[in-house]
Structure prediction request, 77 residues.
Amino acid sequence: MKGAIQMAGPRKCDVTGCEQPPVRSLSGSRVAPYLEIGIEGGKGHSRKSRAHLCQEHYREYKKKARKDREVERAYWH
Prediction:
């Protein structure tokens, strides 16, 4: 798959129930409020980690987090 993350061994999207290959890796603490991720650092976990997302879930994350990102950018201007 073009643009897929190169990792040792087979890997899948960290969203609960998804079996697709990941294309993006983001901070688990940033993704957890928007998607149900099955990694340590997700909802109900204390340790932070990276969240590997497939194309579909990366788009879903971007749409859900858009408003918060706009507010964050407003502080920089």
User: Anything to note?
Assistant: The chain is about 30% helix and 10% strand. The two ends are 38 Å apart (CA to CA).
